[in-house]
Write a structure and sequence with these properties.
Residues 1-25 form the signal peptide. This protein has 175 residues and is of the alpha+beta class. The chain has helices at residues 2-20, 29-46, 56-71, 96-104, 122-128, 162-165, and strands at 53-54, 83-89, 134-142, 145-153. The chain starts with a helix and ends in a 10-residue tail after the last helix. It binds 2-acetamido-2-deoxy-beta-D-glucopyranose (4 copies).
Length: 175
């Protein structure tokens, strides 16, 4: 049911951005966003945190940021209150699952017994951050590079809040 709703919302949004001609419109962008959405939510499930909801405002921000990051120098300097994950690939879009797995694989550096802020795993901790509830994606290709951006609200990676928001992976008890 949630997926049906997400597809409907994403389709409506795709029509909107194509009509406004704000953003490069490609026919499979909606499907790409949906694959990212599903990949991330299936990783969250493993950590027993609720799935994120798709959010139009965050999508608009992520699309804008994806464009900016590839075309404007120092665009990382923008301060925003929402969380952000990014992936910069080559001239073609990376598989959505590859992007999600790259972010998720930073978990290898995370020590659940000694939780806290460290720049080496912030894509992972934001991805499964418990109190983040919505997400939006942007993807843009220019100058032989593709930027994939995810924006999260409320922002994760807050110092002092890692223990209660980065939940260990659920392990089935052995009998
Ligand atoms: C969607 O994201 C915007 C921007 O961060 C936020 O202000 C808004 O509350 C979010 N909507 C929901 C339903 O979470
Ligand atoms: C996230 O992952 C990307 C790509 O692997 C990396 O460049 C970036 O530094 C990571 N951290 C954050 C906070 O985005
Ligand atoms: C993530 O880690 C797994 C297990 O170590 C590995 O098989 C996979 O290739 C990695 N994926 C990416 C995108 O780094
Ligand atoms: C993109 O890559 C091609 C092939 O390597 C190269 O010829 C071209 O100059 C590159 N374009 C930009 C904008 O970097």
């Amino acid at each position: 049911m949630n997926q049906v709703l997400a597809v409907t919302l994403l389709s409506l949004f795709a029509i909107l951005i194509c009509n406004e001609k704000v953003i490069l419109c490609e026919s499979d962008t909606t499907a790409y966003h949906l694959r990212l959405y599903n990949s991330i939510n299936s990783l969250r499930v493993k950590h027993t945190v609720a799935s994120l909801k798709w959010n139009r405002t965050l999508t608009e921000m992520a699309e804008y940021f994806a464009t900016r990051i590839l075309t404007v120098a120092n665009s990382f300097d923008i301060e925003e209150s929402e969380g952000i994950n990014f992936f910069i690939g080559g001239s073609t879009r990376p598989a959505a699952s590859l992007v999600a797995d790259t972010w998720y694989n930073e978990s290898l550096s995370y020590d659940f017994n000694n939780p806290g802020y460290n720049a080496i795993y912030l894509n992972f901790t934001q991805l499964i951050w418990k109190s983040s509830t919505s997400v939006g994606f942007g993807v843009y290709t220019a100058n032989n590079h593709t930027a994939v951006i995810a924006k999260f609200y409320p922002a994760g990676n807050i110092r002092g809040k890692f223990r209660q928001n980065v939940i260990p992976k659920y392990k089935k008890l052995r009998r």
